């Protein structure tokens, strides 16, 4: 069964692993120069990064995000539906049990999926480490262009560390499960993409911030920590915690309750240039207004990575159990 599974799977594996090999080679060739540039440039490093390096940074980030989704779509969803459409599953079941047939496929290809995501994440995390270190040094203050997200942020967390292994395992088994239940490849791919997007957004917005109880900070707003006034007239401030992920912010009044930013403060900030905003903040503070910030310190990066990876691996095992039950009880 292992040899047969490999023969059926090797074309898809060649495509993904070939693309990963090409990108890894490019990263390996350019990584030492980037690291050297980081060591000699000091605080000017982010300003000195070339357009080519910026493009490679974005490309590698997107590649790590895309690989688990591609695995779920093109490895997972067609895996069983292809066999069901061709009727080859019946022949296979005469040679072995249904459970062994499915476990072999899930085990072999699932490990290949995790290895692909893990190798790519390792290469990208290594290459981008000088940029990630420089971003962490910004202490939450505005940067240039794309260089404003610490690796713990919702934008970057999915493309670093070990979580891509968990994503790959979960997305692969999710694709298989949908394919088994739907029994049609194209609809299974479409449904997979929808569930994939919902799962990733839910995890980053609703689950990840609470995997570890976040820290809270209440601070006055000054010209030194003020970042911006957004389109809905909410204030944001920088946190003096290098590499921290700011989960949420809210302005509170003298009684400690959340409050909208007064219209006079909005007008004051819009009229004043940055050097002359100090009187706005002085009056704001005198009336008892402060900013309450909820954040995850950078030191929790690996703990959050481990917790989230374990969650996705458990979900993958549960889906594998569902697949096994479905094939044994619902397919003929």
Query: Care to count the β-strands?
Result: 5
What's the tally of helices?
10
Give the strand order of the largest sheet, numbering strands 1, 2, ... along the chain. Answer: 1-5-4
Name the overall outline.
elongated
- Write down the Rg: 25 Å
Describe this structure in words.
The chain contains 10 helices and 5 strands, in the order αααααααββββααβα. With 332 residues, it is mainly alpha-helical. The strands form 2 sheets. The chain has a 3-stranded antiparallel sheet, with no helix packed on it. A two-stranded antiparallel sheet has the order 2-3. Helix 3 runs parallel beside helix 6, helix 5 runs antiparallel to helix 6 and helix 6 packs antiparallel against helix 7. Residues 141-146 have low confidence and may be disordered.
Write the layout of secondary structure elements.
Layout: H1 2-41, H2 45-48, H3 51-86, H4 88-95, H5 98-136, H6 163-182, H7 185-207, E1 215-219, E2 226-229, E3 235-237, E4 245-252, H8 263-271, H9 278-286, E5 290-296, H10 301-329
Antiparallel strand pairs: 1-5, 2-3, 4-5
Keywords:
5 strands; mainly alpha; 3-stranded antiparallel β-sheet; 8% strand; 10 helices; 332 residues
Care to give the gist of this entry?
This protein has 332 residues and is mainly alpha-helical. The chain has helices spanning 2-41, 45-48, 51-86, 88-95, 98-136, 163-182, 185-207, 263-271, 278-286, 301-329, and strands spanning 215-219, 226-229, 235-237, 245-252, 290-296. Helix 5 runs antiparallel to helix 6 (163-182) and helix 5 packs antiparallel against helix 10.
């Amino acid at each position: 069964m292992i040899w047969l599974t490999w023969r059926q799977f090797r074309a898809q594996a060649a495509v993904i692993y070939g693309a990963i090999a090409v990108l890894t080679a490019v990263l390996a060739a350019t990584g030492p120069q980037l690291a050297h540039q980081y060591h000699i440039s000091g605080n000017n490093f982010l300003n000195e990064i070339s357009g080519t390096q910026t493009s490679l940074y974005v490309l590698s980030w997107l590649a790590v995000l895309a690989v688990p989704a591609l695995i779920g779509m093109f490895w997972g969803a067609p895996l069983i539906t292809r066999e069901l459409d061709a009727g080859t599953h019946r022949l296979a079941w005469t040679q072995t049990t249904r459970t062994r047939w499915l476990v072999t496929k899930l085990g072999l290809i699932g490990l290949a999926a995790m290895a692909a995501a893990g190798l790519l994440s390792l290469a990208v995390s290594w290459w981008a480490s000088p940029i990630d270190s420089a971003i962490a040094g910004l202490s939450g203050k505005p940067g240039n262009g794309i260089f404003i997200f610490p690796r713990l942020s919702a934008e970057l967390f999915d493309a670093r560390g070990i979580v891509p292994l968990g994503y790959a395992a979960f997305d692969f088994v999710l694709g298989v499960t949908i394919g088994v239940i739907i029994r049609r490849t194209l609809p299974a791919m479409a449904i997979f993409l929808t569930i994939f997007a919902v799962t990733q957004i839910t995890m980053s917005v609703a689950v990840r911030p609470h995997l570890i109880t976040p820290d809270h900070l209440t601070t006055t707003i000054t010209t030194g920590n003020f970042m911006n006034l957004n389109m809905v007239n909410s204030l944001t401030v920088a946190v003096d915690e290098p590499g921290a992920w700011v989960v949420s912010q809210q302005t509170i009044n003298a009684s400690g309750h959340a409050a909208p930013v007064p219209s006079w403060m909005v007008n004051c900030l819009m009229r004043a240039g940055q050097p002359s905003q100090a009187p706005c903040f002085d009056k704001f503070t005198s009336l008892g207004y402060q900013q309450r910030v909820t954040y995850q310190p950078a030191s929790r990066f690996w703990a959050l990575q481990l917790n989230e990876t374990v969650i996705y691996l458990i979900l993958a095992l549960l889906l594998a159990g569902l697949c096994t039950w479905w094939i044994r009880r619902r397919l003929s």
